[in-house]
Amino acid sequence: MSELSSFFHAVKLPVISEVAHALIKTLDDEDASATQISAIIARDPALTAKLMRLANSARFGAARGVTSLDDAIAMAGLGHVRTLALAACFAETFPDLPGLDSDEFWKSSMACAGYAKWLALCLGDDGQDAWLAGMMMRLGELLIYQAAPATFAEIEAQPHLPGGR
Which of 96, 120, 143, 147: disulfide with 125, CB 3.0–4.6 Å? Predict the structure, then answer.
C-alpha cells in the first residue's frame, strides 16, 4: 500500500452536525430572518450558551443582561452569529488537539472562508462554494494530526504568516 493510501486509511473524516448544515444553508440566504436563525441555534444548547455569553460580554456593553436568544442575535449581529455558530459547529466535529490553538485555527478558517466568499462574489462566482473551500483550507492539518501527530507538531511550529506554510 502506498504511503498516501495508508495515510487516508488512518484518518476518519468527521461529519458536521445537522445544526451546522442548517446554519450554513440559512446564513447564506440573504432573505433569512433572525427568527429562522434563532430556531436553528436553539436546537443546540451549547451553541445557544456560547451566543448568550458573547452577547453579554463587555465587547457589546449591553446596559442590561441579554436573556433571550433573539436579543442575543440582535445584539451580536448576523456577522458575529455566523462566525461564532459555524466555528463552534465545526470545532465540535473535531476533538481538542494538544498543540493546536483551536480558537486561532477556527477564527483563521472562518476569516479565510469569509474573504473567499467576498472575492468570489466580487468576481461573479458562487460565494457558497468559495466559502466552503476557504473553510476547508486548513482542515488537512487536522487530518495529518490524526495520522501523524509528530508531523502535525512540525507544521504548527512553522510561521503562521500568510504564505508562511
Answer: 120
Which region, left, alpha or beta, applies to residue 99 given φ > 0 means left and ψ of -120 to 50 means alpha?
left
**Residue 105 · residue 93 · CB < 8 Å:** no
Taking 80 as the threshold, does the pLDDT of residue 29 lie above it? no
List domains and CATH numbers for the chain.
1-93 (1.10.3210.10), 97-165 (no CATH)
Per-residue model confidence as pLDDT tens digits over 53-92: 877 776 666 666 778 888 888 877 777 777 777 777 777 7
Supply 149's cell numbers.
Answer: 501527530
CA nearest to 85, candidates 96, 66, 72? 72
Grid cell 509528530 in the structure block, residue: 150
The whole model's pTM is what?
A: 0.58
